[in-house]
Design a protein that fits this description.
The protein has about 130 residues and is of the alpha+beta class. The protein has two domains: about 50 residues; about 60 residues, no CATH class. A four-stranded antiparallel β-sheet has the order 1-2-3-4, with no helix packed on it. Strand 1 and strand 2 form a beta hairpin. The longest helix has 17 residues. The protein is elongated.
Length: about 130
């Protein structure tokens, strides 16, 4: 199983380096050959990669003095019901020296209607 997973990952990474959709399709045809399940798995990874965009480039919470499209939530003032970016905090799971972890619901997401539950770590920005 690990060998197959490595094969999927290596084909996925190589497919991302193709410059155009036509080159990518030709590459996948050669790399996956007569294994339609392998091609389906690689294409699913490519779609997920493309849909993810660059969401990690922007912080979920703005630092003081910066602008963000998320609500201005001061660290330590969050509570269930608080919105942080697309996340609505549902309950505190735990907290410590590095901040707090909440169960949250992602409200604005195109994968699922009605949101999905995730964990959000909100750290102190002192």
């Amino acid at each position: 199983m690990q060998g197959k997973q490595r094969n999927v990952e290596s084909i996925f990474n190589a497919a991302l380096s193709q410059r155009s959709p036509i080159e990518r399709a030709a590459f996948l045809e050669g790399a996956c050959g007569d294994e339609p399940n392998l091609r389906t798995r690689v294409e699913a990874l490519i779609r997920a990669h493309e849909e993810a965009g660059n969401f990690l480039d922007e912080p979920a919470v703005a630092r003081e003095g910066t602008e963000s499209d998320s609500d201005d939530v001061k660290p330590g003032l969050e509570k269930p019901g608080t919105m942080i970016g697309p996340y609505k905090l549902l309950q505190l799971i735990g907290e410590g020296g590095m901040g707090a972890v909440y169960m949250a619901e992602q409200l604005r997401h195109h994968f699922e209607a009605g949101g999905r539950k995730v964990m959000v770590r909100h750290r102190e920005l002192a």
